Amino acid sequence: MSETETSGTAISARGLVKSFGDVRALDGVDFEARRGTVLGVLGPNGAGKTTAVRVLTTLLKADSGEASVAGLDVVEDAPELRSQIGLAGQYAAVDENLTGIENLVMVGRLYGMRRSDARGRADELLERFGLSDAGERIVKTYSGGMRRRLDLAAALVAKPPVVFLDEPTTGLDPRSRLDLWETIESLVADGTTVLLTTQYLDEADRLADRIVVIDLGRVIAEGTSEELKERVGGIRVEVHLTDESSAPAAADALAPMSTEEPAVDGDRVSVRVESETGRIMEAARRLDGAGVDADDVAIRRPTLDDVFLTLTGRELSAEESGGEADREEVPA
Amino acid sequence: MSRFFHDTVVLAERNLVRLPRMPDLLIGFTIQPVMFVLLFAFVFGGAISTPGFDYVDFLIPGIIVQNTAFGGFVTALGLADDLTKGLIDRFRSLPTSRASVLAGRTAADIVTNTLSIAILVITGLIIGFSFGTGALDIIAGFALMILFGYAFSWIFALIGMSVSSPEAANGIGFTLIFPITFISSAFVPVDSMPAGLQWFAEINPITIVVDAMRALWLGVPAGNNVWGAVVWCLVLIAIFAPLAVHRYRRIAGG
Ligand SMILES: Nc1ncnc2c1ncn2[C@@H]1O[C@H](COP(=O)(O)OP(=O)(O)OP(=O)(O)O)[C@@H](O)[C@H]1O
Ligand SMILES: [Mg+2]
User: Fold this and answer.
1) What is residue A202's predicted lDDT score, i.e. its pLDDT?
2) A20 and A325 Cβ atoms separated by less than 8 Å
3) Residues in contact with B199: Cβ distance below 8 Å, sequence separation at least 6, in sequence order
4) Pick the residue with more confidence: B164 or A64?
5) What is the mean pLDDT of chain A?
6) Which residues of chain A are within 8 Å of residue B92 when distances are taken between CB atoms?
7) Which of A42, A172, A217, B225 could be joined to A27 by an S-S link, Cβ 3.0–4.6 Å?
8) Whose CA is nearest to atom 25 of ligand 1?
């Protein structure tokens, strides 16, 4: 690897393996994040997301493999590495018996900041996370979402160059979620590298420059959101027919638009296209020419749900509701 | 090293700031010891014969030793709580000195133990306890109790890092401390016990510490008890502090 490539990489994991008894939480995981980008780690419950984050933040030693953050090895250079990272774990880790301000000042001082600096930074972050009014209150009186935001603020106290956020928007209301997305975007604009795990597809879609999809401790796909969507069948033109019986005629009419056969599903007919431009018009024209009436003609872009289904044969959303990770339920 | 002290102070401060906000815990150091003193002095006081002493004089050094042995209990509770709430992970992800999380905990116990000891002595003085020695010995007695409490804080630190919940820490703490403090010279003269218990009470290091306190505060001939007690505390620290720190380092299973 050349010097420039090395210095452009903020997070790197190579061949990470970690077992807990019989469970292989990480089974040879590789990924990289370039400096100043967001890496989205997407996966269902029990995929190994948190385990990967814990290895990268020095909380857990991998059984084998290597990892570095900000050019520092997670094992050899752990003490130095810790001054370069901020972590908001999956569950808010704040002291319930301190106030919001006291929590942030404590964390700042543990990063080595002077008390007055830490105090200034705490006020700034409370403001940014909409907690200014609650800053003097004991955290015990906070709602779940407020604790979560305080925890995220704690991860940013020292303005670390690399930030790890493990499911940061779980438990936030839609408004706070949007605010956090904006905060993450502004962090990245300032050059911070962010690794973000999530089960929310729209979140990875919106924030992540690159996405790794992990399942059962392995990376099963990697790329930009666009690349991943491309892999599962790309863009389709979908037609909603007025009359289901005209489906065969519609399929015949649309067939020349693609090298692939149109797909028919009841009163819906869809066909894969290479690019979006002009396709809706073309489909409408062809249907018109064949005398087929349609209620709606639209471009359908695949979601990451589709990505997951295609890659694993399982619905992502079905597992989201599962709560505790439970591998027994997962068909091999 | 300066980093270690800095972080220890920050964390000790955290532990002390939160204390008044946990009233149930605060009762443990303040009202509960007072209640014990009053119960022992007035319920058992008439029945237990302590030749050569008023029972209150005999009782106060003993009950302070027992209470101080329990003092580090906040450390076990606090650490177990921090573990379950994920705060230990937060601290471990920060560039803090590793030993400072435990050192900050046990250092905070020094403050709470001092408070507790002061409350007990004042309660004792009100119900008739009187020192039988000079200022230097009295101060040495306080110092011994602080050291003794600090040693037990490290035992509790190990317990706190080894159990799955604050409730478990509670259970183990009580099961451990009650017998070793009761089967000692703390509350009754050892020669009043049945033979088997007497044997245990005589070799029980708590007896050495209680006897050292009676030497320092009542003027009972000391023998080797004072030095024995100091050495015993130092040995406890030398054993349990490294064990607790080791446990802390390993706790994440890594
Ligand atoms: N400390 C542990 N002891 C035993 N098993 C563990 C431990 N931590 C994780 N595991 C197991 O390792 C696997 C991966 O867990 P991990 O927490 O990394 O998943 P995750 O992708 O973060 O899931 P979730 O979306 O539910 O947070 C799971 O099967 C889990 O049960
Ligand atoms: Mg997780």
Assistant:
1) 79
2) no
3) none
4) A64
5) 87
6) 58-59
7) A217
8) A45
DSSP letter string over B178-224? HHHHHSSTTTS-GGGS-HHHHHHHHH-HHHHHHHHHHHHHH----TT
Write the residue in B14, B22, B92 that is nearest to A59 by C-beta. B92
Expressed as residue numbers, the domain containing B39 is 2-251
- Asked if the model's pLDDT at residue A323 lies above 60, the reply is no
Pairing of strands A38-42, A210-215: parallel
Q: How many domains does chain B have?
A: 1
Contact A102 B89 (CB under 8 A): no
User: Which of B10, B91, B252 lies closest to A109 in CB terms?
Assistant: B10
pLDDT score, position A316: 59
Whether A136 and chain B come into contact, CB under 8 Å, resolves to no
Q: Could you tell me if residue A235 is left (phi over 0), alpha (psi between -120 and 50 degrees) or otherwise beta? A: beta
Q: Give the binding-site residues of ligand 1, using a 6 Å CB cut-off.
A: A 20, 23, 25, 43, 45-51, 90, 325, 327; B 253
Contact A94 B87 (CB under 8 A): yes
Q: Which helix (H) or strand (E) holds A257?
A: none
CA distance B62 to B48: 14
Complex ipTM value:
0.86
Residues 6+ apart with CB under 8 A from B96: A82, A110, B3, B7, B11
Q: Which domains does chain A have, with CATH numbers?
A: 3-84+160-229 (3.40.50.300), 235-301 (3.30.70.100)
